[in-house]
Amino acid sequence: MERERSEPTSEPINGNFSYLATAREQRPSLGKMLFAAERFLLAKIMQAFGNPPVHVVLWNGLEIPNHNGDTVARILIRDRDALFKLFLNHELNFGELYSAKRIEVQGDLLDFLEAVFRVWPLPTQDKAIDRLLAPFIDIRNNTITGSRHNIQHHYDIGNDFYKLWLDERMLYTCAYFPHPGASLEDAQIAKMDHVCRKLGLRPGDSVVEAGCGWGALAMHMAKYYGVTVRAYNISREQITHARERAHAEGLDGKIEFIEDDYRNVKGKFDAFVSVGMLEHVGTDHYRELGDVIDRSLKDEGRGLIHTIGLNYPRPMDAWAERHIFPGANPPSLAQMMQIFEPHDFSVLDVENLRLHYAKTLEHWLQRYEDNAEQVTRMFDEQFVLAWRLYLAGSLTSFKTGTLQLFQVTFSRASNNRIPWTRQYLYEPGYQPVGGTDEHM
Length: 440
Fold this sequence. Notes:
Distance between the termini: 44 Å
Keywords: Lipid metabolism, Methyltransferase, S-adenosyl-L-methionine, Transferase
Order of helices and strands: EHEEEHHEHHHHHEHEHEEHEHHEHHHE
Domain DUF7884: 42-118
InterPro entries: CFA/CMAS (IPR050723), CMAS (IPR003333), DUF7884 (IPR057206), SAM-dependent_MTases_sf (IPR029063)
Pfam families: CMAS, DUF7884
Largest sheet: 7 strands, mixed
Helix content: 40-55%
Number of strands: 12
GO biological process, one term: methylation
Radius of gyration: 24 Å
């Protein structure tokens, strides 16, 4: 993959200084005092980042070496105010300054991000602060009103934008690669089959899907597994696309796409599935989601939740939460149990597809870069930089283990129609079940 790289130049920035100049140049006494203050702030910033192996070049041409020259990239800070902003809140302001071109990464962006993520101290979650701020940031919360605002911010920016870099079926979730060389299109089909097999779908089953994206999974389930699907989504752009495509594929009567919140799900179903929605639910609403699942599943009902996750609870990256994914809150496995335990759901299987998501993002980022000029015409250069950082940062997060991808299957505790082994996942058509039932 051709990766985003910024090479040094010798053009002066802000006056007669070239940023290739070094600290050995002579400066007046006041300049030395200012430089000492700048070095102090920069040392604190680098410490907050975990002292990654990068060099920093200031707006006046002064270069601050780090790690004895063994570095993966250089960071150009273009003005003093940008330095102060980094000092005040590096997690939030780095992305904002990068998008505004007040910070420049000179070198391979992915190499830089990996070097930073490998050493960046992970934060902890301060629930007390969250509770104090909650009344003032309701739009960011995942109430019915807040969720609609949050989803519109990310998903309703235009289907044409997502078509540039997603696969042809418009799946915006982790693919499943049977082998690393599989195409993105094949891997997304394999993901949908993987989900359907885990659910043990049988012709005639009824399925409810919470958060259906552009409808690809619902159509796949109906078309290839003979089930009926009721799919809920609050993104108008996505629902409109899904209805048009289902009609074009002759699936009217097999799928009902409903523009509504998952909390308003109605009916009884054989299976519940949610792929890529739990990140938007918020841990404070997990009990509500569990209530929805409980009232929706039949006695032998089973379910699957596919979600970005964490090894332990902590906040979402501040910049991404503000500018890309408002309201996002990936859970730990322990937090996910808040969905299952109150209703005595039995967890049947947990699979971590972290590296599959890293591979998915490699494809997305490459396609995004291939269409960067068109994205610029759609929006502007700042948008292009922000989404480049988001995609590259997400890729790096899965590669380094900062983020996980959990698939959790579950059923009611008394349900014995469950697989004896995992063989059913890898052999199409082979679905042995437990209890007194015969092999299917």
